[in-house]
Design brief:
Helix content: over 70%
CATH topology: Rhomboid-like fold
Number of helices: 9
Number of strands: 0
Number of domains: 1
Shape: globular
CATH class: Mainly Alpha
Largest sheet: none
């Protein structure tokens, strides 16, 4: 655990933040109004929803995958660029998806989709790893077609990750 905190402090902090919001909600310390943005509205809850989970399985699935992919990206990009990329993906996912929602959405899945796409792009020289990330993207997009899961937010997360990847390519050119 100490190595994880030392090698991937941003990923560890974001996992902790997601867990704290989850626990805070279940203890009555985080109001549901912070977590649920009215469909179509852009406000605090629009962004806070992306670090909010009500269901333990949803939180666990997102954080396990994030705990695997996040540290790799954090090392690959460096902490400042990783944090910036993650924040831009979160903001873009919220802004691209929220105007078209017809119901409430919660969770880190959209941001995670963006990170998977970003990882597949930035690590394309590791062909097998990049392909594995793209398989996870495809599986998550299909999962988004299930009832109760937002395809739109998974999709806008993937698009956001692609846009951040293209932006990073422009910066390094």
């Amino acid at each position: 655990m100490h190595d994880f905190l030392r090698l991937a402090p941003i990923t560890a902090a974001i996992i902790l933040l997601n867990i704290l919001v989850f626990v805070g909600y279940h203890l009555g310390l985080v109001p549901i109004t912070w977590m649920l943005a009215s469909p179509g509205d852009i406000n605090f809850a629009t962004f806070f929803a992306h670090i909010s989970h009500i269901d333990l399985l949803h939180l666990a699935m997102n954080m396990v995958i994030f705990g695997q992919v996040g540290p790799i990206l954090e090392r690959q990009l460096g902490a400042p660029m990783y944090l910036s990329s993650l924040m831009v993906i979160l903001i873009l996912t919220a802004l691209l998806g929220q105007p078209f929602l017809d119901s409430y959405t919660l969770g880190f899945s959209g941001v995670l989709m963006g990170l998977l796409v970003l990882g597949a792009g930035t690590m394309s020289h590791y062909r097998s790893f990049s392909q594995q990330l793209l398989v996870l993207v495809a599986v998550n997009l299909v999962t988004g077609l299930l009832p109760g899961i937002s395809f739109l937010m998974h999709f806008t997360g993937a698009v956001s990750g692609g846009l951040v990847f293209l932006g990073l390519q422009k910066l390094s050119a």
